Amino acid sequence: MSEGRRKAAPVRRRGKRHWALRVLGWMLGLFFLGVIGAAAAFFIGYQTTDIPDANAAFKTNTTTVYFSDGKTPIGSFYDQNRRSVPLDQIPKTVQDAVIAAEDRTFWTNPGVSPSGMARAAFNIARGQQLQGGSTITQQYVKIMYLTQERTFSRKFSELFIATKLSRQTDKKEILAGYLNTIYFGEGAYGVAAAGDAYFSQPVPAKLNVGQAALLATVLNNPTRFDTDSTDPVVKARILDRYRYVLDGMRQTGTITEAQYNGWAKAVPPTQKKKKSDRFRGVQGFLLDMARKELSKLGVPDDEISGGGLKITTTFDVNLQKKMNASIAERPKKKGDLHIGMASVRPGTGELVAMYGGGDYLKNQLNWATLRARPGSSFKPFAVSAALENDFTIYSTLQGDSPIIVQGQKLKNEFNKDFGDVTLKEATEQSINTAFYDLIDNQLPDGPDKLVSEAEKLGIPKTTALERGRNNPSTVLGPDPYASPVEMANAYATFAARGWYVPVHTIKKVDYPGNAKDWTEAQLPGKQVISQEVADQVNFVLKDVVEGPNGTGKLAEDLDRPVAGKTGTAGGVAVEHRAANAKCDGCKDGSDTLTSWWTGYTAGYNSPTDSKGLSTSVLYRAGKTGESDLDPFSDDPAFFGGNWPLRTWLAYMDPALAGSDKADFTEPDPSDIKDTTTPSYTPSNTPTNTPTNTPTNTPTNTPTNTPTNTPTGKPTGKPTGKPTKTPGWPPIPTGGPTPPDNGAGGQ
């Protein structure tokens, strides 16, 4: 290297360092200017913001809920109970519980939380709803001096007023105002009203430690921490939050370690007063479901109860009347028999009618949203998964009985031997061993693919369903995977040729002054399976109704094309159930615990042009829905193709009266052409493996048939409708104990 080049290199390096230092200097200068500007803006905002007059009488306005026409009211949420008491009448236990829950630095902070404000700003910048991060002083300011609008301008006003209020007002006065105005749910504003609403205790001084901690728990979000919920997830959420509050009380010295250990064991029981009559009857379930969905959309509980909102739901008033009337088509035998029913408009996700029970005030269990064992009504998801993995509707499955699955000998009902059957025939006749063969033997990673397919089509991801990823019996729906609402929407995805929209009940939310209206158009829709696959599934499920051995033949009485699937799920014998769960009223392995019919009609053209309906009907018995259904039926068993389908018809017939009798889109002929050739008659002797592959495989096997799938179609196809009994699978003669359920059949 020349001497000139050696001298030039250090010069270039010094030049780069000089440029980097200049950039750093500019950045530091801009940073300090920003800090100075922010401080100046805060000072100006602080000086020019006055504490306004308190909201006159702290008024609330009635929120009204309407059917989908936007004119016919379902009911309202206004239910206000307010009573103020001096701070010295609110025990320190209650005060400390609320502080532990909402603002542990209340006594020392300047009235605002800088970190909380930064988080709120970050959420807005990301396009998310502004929420959280407020101190008790900020929450009180929002209630007493500002609107509930979640914007930057309102948040900055809240910041300035809270800071000024904290400097000018004693913290005890702020806390007293907060405890007398905050919303606790159940229509209760203030701790005195809350104690009366939750524990029938109008005197706050008489609330014990556990009751104080529970009130502090629910005020954060009364819907999210709904103490009436029977959902294990919600119960666990409440317990976690409750213990968090108690832990804060322990840390501040309000309670001792021994008191914490005693109260943290369980959430104290509530003693609530009778709910408002506005929740009486069937419509109480509609109101309750709408309220819960509003909360999921981020609408605060105090706005839901008294924000003067106009809520337009997806419920169709005429269809709802027809569904209510259809419940009369049920067994006449009296007893603890429950019906859950839901109807969805395909391609829209709109829940147009729902029956969760006869009277919400008498029983808050919504049988249309409670999950149950779907039984064989889960099989269509296996059909869809198979078709997406290069099977055809004429791929051959093992229908023999018994077969060996994971070392267990499993049988069809009455040990009925069907021989080799096609996927289409297995679905039409609901042949359990054929679907076991599909999921356990022929479809690679069958259980995992089945669960993914069900979730993709609209069945929610739950712990119970996720456990099924390693269990071939998942195809027979043995655990509480889905509710009628969820099944109706998942089948609606088939009806909409693979187009999925989340099921929902809120169509539109109108705020006073149109401040931040919300419509269902904001919900995402997507193509989750191809139209070609959906068309083939519809073709197969039509055969459940129109086929010579179909389990849903009664649906032909609708006098229009129908596709659907029956399902029953039963318990296994008591000795196999006892290790996992109790079953009220179960006697033995023949109990029918759930009975389903989910069926849908054609008429979908696009999300804005959909005239069909997808409707699911579920029957359950017993206080918790886990008793035997068979005593309510005149038949030997409570088949899905009997009472559930009859109730379905009683609704669908008038619901679709006068509409066009559209048919489903025909699949591509190459997809449904039966190219298999009869080659042999299977032996009636059961085999020990689910392969039974014929040796004289025909040469005209479809190219997209899996290589491990037998291609010969038997000539010895059973004739006549097979006799079915509930309670499947039977108790295996060997191997590990099966799961706590039985499922399958009709």
The total count of strands amounts to 22
Percent of sequence in beta strands: 5-15%
Largest sheet, in brief, is: 6 strands, antiparallel
Low-confidence stretches: 42-51, 126-132, 572-588, 677-744
Output the radius of gyration: 31 Å
The quaternary organization reads as: single chain
Output the strand order for the largest sheet. 8-7-21-18-17-22
Cα shape: globular
The SS-based structural class is alpha+beta
Task: Give the terminus-to-terminus CA distance.
Answer: 90 Å
Q: Portion of residues in helices? A: 25-40%
Chain-averaged pLDDT: 79
Count of individual helical segments: 23
Q: What does this 3D model show about the protein?
A:
The protein is globular and about 85 Å long. By secondary structure, it is of the alpha+beta class. The strands form 7 sheets. The chain has a 6-stranded antiparallel β-sheet, sandwiched between helices. A 5-stranded mixed β-sheet has the order 2-1-6-14-15, with helices on one face. Strands 3-5-4 form a 3-stranded mixed β-sheet, covered by helices on one side. Helix 4 packs across helix 6 and helix 9 packs antiparallel against helix 10 (257-263). The termini are far apart. The protein is built from 23 helices and 22 strands.
